[in-house]
Amino acid sequence: MIVNIADLNAGMGKETPFAFETTAEELDAAPVEGAFEGNITVKGNAVYTGTCYRVEGVIACRKVFTCDRCLEPCAEEQENAFSEEFRRVSDGMAADDDANVFDGDAMDITGMVRDTLLAAQPLSNICKPDCKGLCPVCGANLNHGDCGCERFVPDPRLAALQQFKKLKD
Ligand SMILES: [Zn+2]
Ligand SMILES: [Zn+2]
Q: Are residues 18 and 70 in the same domain?
């Protein structure tokens, strides 16, 4: 994904729009859980601020995963915003270690897009915020209704302890 910023050199505040279509394979971006399905769209603008090139936009993708709580397959449409500074090496702009750098007029945003996308992924993957999960007794998906089991033990470690006590009694 190369943004050609030759036009921007003319002036500060001028914008260069860009739009790319890619895939998880092309990006080499695999989330820890699940997978990005189909096309990943990257749209945005590059603007020269006088000290750097600011690249802003949105990465739209579809993620498929298994719900951590109810284990049902889920799909989620994501829009991940980004706003990053790029610095051209030959401009002599002081670049710190984590700055995005490029040379010439070709600004490659592939690495930034991959990093943004992966960093935006949540640690837990849940089908909906109020997913009720599975019944710890019979394994029924509680989102589909109550199975009628006695489930007064919220903590599985406590449940194991109770089982143990029952055996001893
Ligand atoms: Zn769920
Ligand atoms: Zn049950």
A: yes
Domain-embedded: residue 125: no
Give me the pLDDT at residue 7, please: 75
C-alpha–C-alpha distance, residues 35 and 64, integer Å? 5
Range of the domain at 157: 132-169
Please state the pTM of the whole predicted model.
0.79
Of the listed ligands, the closest to the CA of 143 is 1
What distance in angstroms lies between residue 158's CA and the mean position of ligand 2's atoms? Answer: 17
* Strand residue runs (E) in the chain: 2-4, 15-23, 35-48, 53-66, 73-88, 100-102, 106-108
pLDDT(87) > 90: no
Question: How do residues 107-121 score in pLDDT, each as one tens digit?
Answer: 999 999 999 999 999
Q: Let me know whether 108 and 30 are in one domain.
A: yes
- Per-residue pLDDT band at 6 (split at 50, 70, 90): confident
Q: Which ligand is nearest to the CA of 73?
A: 1
Query: What distance in angstroms lies between residue 73's CA and the mean position of ligand 1's atoms?
Result: 8
